[in-house]
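re: that complex we talked abt at group meeting.

here r the seqs, copy pasted straight from the sheet so there may be weird spacing, ignore it
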Amino acid sequence: MTTDILQLLVSGLATGAIYALVAIGFTLLWQTSQTINFAQGEFVMLPAFYILMAGNLGLPFWAAALIGIAVSVLTLGVLFKLVVVDPMIRHGVMPLVIATIGLAIVLKEGVKEFYSAQAQPFPPLAEATNIAIGGVVFSLQSIVNLAIAIAAVVILQFFLSRTYTGRCMQATAQNPSVARILGIDVDRMILYTFVINAGLVALASILVTPIYLAKFTNGETLGIYAFIAAIIGGFNQVRGAILGGLLLGVLDNLVATYLSTQYRNALPLLILIIVVLVRPQGLLGRVEERTV
Amino acid sequence: MNARNIAIAALSAVVIAALLAAPYALKSYGLYILSLWAVTTIGAIGLNLTLGYAGQISLAQGAFVGIGAYCTAILTTKYGYPLPFTYLVAFVSCFSIGWVLGYPALRVEHHYLAFVTLAFTTLVYLIFRNEEWLTGGVSGIGGIPRPVMFGYSLRAPAEFYYFCLANLAAISLAFWGLIRSPWGRAFVAVRENPVRALSLGVDTRRYTLIAFALGAGLGGISGVLLAQLVQFIDPSPFSLTASLNLLLMVVVGGSGYFFGPFVGAIVAVLLPEWLRFSGGLYLICYAILVMVLMAFCPTGLIGLAGRFLKPVSKPAPVPAREQTT
Amino acid sequence: MSALLSVRDLRKSFGGIVAVDGVSFEVHDGEILGIIGPNGSGKSTLFNCILGQLQPSQGEVRFEGQDITGMRPCDLNRRGVSRTFQLLQIFPQLSVRENLILAGQEHQGTMTTRLFGPRDAGLASAAEKMIDFFRLRHLADELASSLSYGQQKLLDAAMAFMSGPRLVLLDEPAGGVNLTMLESLRERLRAINAEQRATFIVIEHNMEFVMALCTRIVVLAEGRIIAQGDPASVRADEKVIEAYLGH
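got the structure back, here u go
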């Protein structure tokens, strides 16, 4: 029984860590540029297909993965900001939200029409074997995913809090106008956020796609899970997004095992509704007050 | 009456005449598509109230259409209730669910409603698919009747088409009255500047909930008609895609304009049939159109047409909004 | 004479910053009270706490003897407290007349009559009167967006009076208004104060405007009241001069 729970916990944390990566990107975009990216799920779905396409050219997996990440950074980071966000944001938040909904459809249907409507196998980073630690058997894939995700978050946190550029980005997130007065190139910092988001979703894509296979619909649930993770954590904090993601991953796994597989997808939705009802500022969030 | 109003009146008259004459020119499939347009427009009118007038992004309109459709399917085929009764049940249940759903979301910033409704739509879809005892699961429910009025059956495509048109006309008139009433003025005020509206005694929360719930109720009515139109329903047309489609439809047509949903539904329902586009490719073009419109003309096709009809208008200065918590 | 509005020991802090630090004052029926103070002295925060736009951390606000602390702005407005904002807040897509009707409609009838009743909510003649009073007759059917800034400012003020309020809080009514308009604004405010027995609280940076308009003045600095009295005595107060000239 306890070993079961330990196994579930670790595999839950592993998926949760992937949700967290996506939620962090989401939160960063919101913080620095008030962009609510409804296409975030599709942003996770797409890099896997970039990698598959690069692989179809005959490249080894590692090279294809690097190209995939680079193309993601270019398209989902730089181009997304320049072509979609910048022209929209002057009209306000609403048109941008609608435009990202449109973008989600374009990406999803685009993959379906121009690549394939069928689920494609995607090479995992680790062998599908199990390893025993202290008598408990874990899947190697879970452990590897968890380790990579943790490493990514640690590096990101280090970058944001310890480097000059990182701190400029945080200043931009907290108060763009003050940051501008302090001589920070705010636009550049916002661009970096988009690039980081693109990197995070590309990494999440590499980790998650071997589990679900590469399919054009992958983004649907991932997007909403990422947002729910962000809300649970408080929407405007990176720490919150991490907590939210991990919590969601673990709960999701427990429900699927012990309660109902049919309603597995319902749990995060219920959590979302409860959080919005009971604690709309999120578990780690504080109520923000602004003067009128 | 100025030239612009005359142009609108003339165009409306031509369109109405064409709609009334359609059964003489079209075969049953053409009529089916036109009926679908009318039914979809009703759902889009509801969403236009929520989105265009109250300024709330709802991703649940497809789910409300689904709830309306399943209400009709279940009540008529399993329990033998008459159709008019299902209208009432569908409207009241969608209205109440809309009210309850909107309430928590309004306590926080408005984009939360988008995600709460997104969650709701997914949840409702799961229920349609999994609760076989009630909804028939993936095998759906068939044999939904069409209405009989004064002993005269409206089964045939042409008759049922007129029935859909009559429904659309009635709802359009009611909606016209609504947006011209003080309620309509309050909706606009809440959308344009909630802080100021609140300071003028407008209970923004109540009006927003009303707009959301009424919009949901109209979604339910659209579902009732849809069930009668297709006569067989399963969960697939009520997935998130349906809600997204309805949302884009309203935006493409022009949210906040009376005729927006009509135009939007033409682009979403009629054009793909006439242009013989395959589904996915059309959806891509459509979504790109949405993005281009958002960048250059967020007021949609009606707003774009308005620009050409009124070339001398100067842009309205937008007042600096004040944020509150 | 009992106070129309009394504010007792009002405090508001944001995180560690205390914006309003124990402010108490009263406003009497028919008065025009000015609140002045250097930038960041807590004037707007005080307004927003009185008006329910912000929840005060501590203290009490009473209107006509009843506790209204933290009441929602719309409920407060229906009890007869109205306001304008520092930045212009009109509805540019509605006509001047529509703006005015909107400003009064929630005070008329019920939700049902507002849905099924007349389109003007029975406010047609009241709106016409207000249009004449603020001399906007020639603009009555224009979209508010086509008005000049000064005219919009007049409309903004007119909207605050549509519901026949007992108390009106004006947040920098003179801000950005040119001299001729300023004159007509002050004169109209004086007239409405006399005719409708409406009581005003005015936040203003334009000293000349405040001194000419108000009967009594409260001076805020760093969230506290440092002086109050009639315009002449406040003008002569050393603490006030010091607060303005700074440290």
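couple things i noticed - Chain C has one domain: 3-245. Chain C touches chain A at residues 14, 19, 44-45, 48, 53-54, 85 (CB under 8 Å).
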